[in-house]
Amino acid sequence: MSRFALLALLPILAACATPRQNCETAALKDLQTIDALIAETEQNIARGYGIEVETVRSTTFRYCLGRRSGGNTSIGMIFCNEPEFRTIERPVALDLADEEAKLRSLRAKRVSTAKEAARAVAMCRQQHPEG
Question: In the record, which residues are listed under signal peptide (predicted)?
Fold first, then answer.
């Protein structure tokens, strides 16, 4: 199956989630975000440095088929420039004491967020008992 056919099916598959699943996913979103931040902070502390991720755009020149500038249609190969995106990871210095304080704060926030998420999931189950 081609990539385009799979992409065309994606919205249909996303629509297959039940209302209860959609509700529970929304209820757990903040908790999952906090869990991801806790994991990232723990990794930073274990490594001793952070990683900054940056997307860089550059232009590459390739042979293309199609129109030249000015709208003239051509048959054959012409030069064209296309944007290309790369992800670059760079190490960055961190204050480990600040990272440990951030981790303590995130863990404390996680406790209250987990309680809120549990209440929200329970509400989802009451509103949508069909599963």
Answer: 1-17
Q: Which residues on adjacent β-strands are paired with residue 50? A: 92
| C-alpha 73, offset from chain centre | 39
pTM above 0.85, yes or no: no
Residue 89 has, within 13 A of its CA and on its CB side, a CA count of 3
Comparing CA positions, the residue from 98, 100, 65, 90 lying closest to residue 79 is 65
CB 101 within 8 A of CB 59: no
In the numeric block, which tokens belong to residue 2?
A: 């081609």
- Taking only the tens of pLDDT, the chain with its 131 residues reads 455 555 566 566 556 889 999 999 999 999 999 999 999 999 999 999 999 999 999 887 777 666 555 666 655 566 677 788 999 999 999 999 999 999 999 999 999 999 999 999 999 999 998 86
Token couple for 67: 């129109």
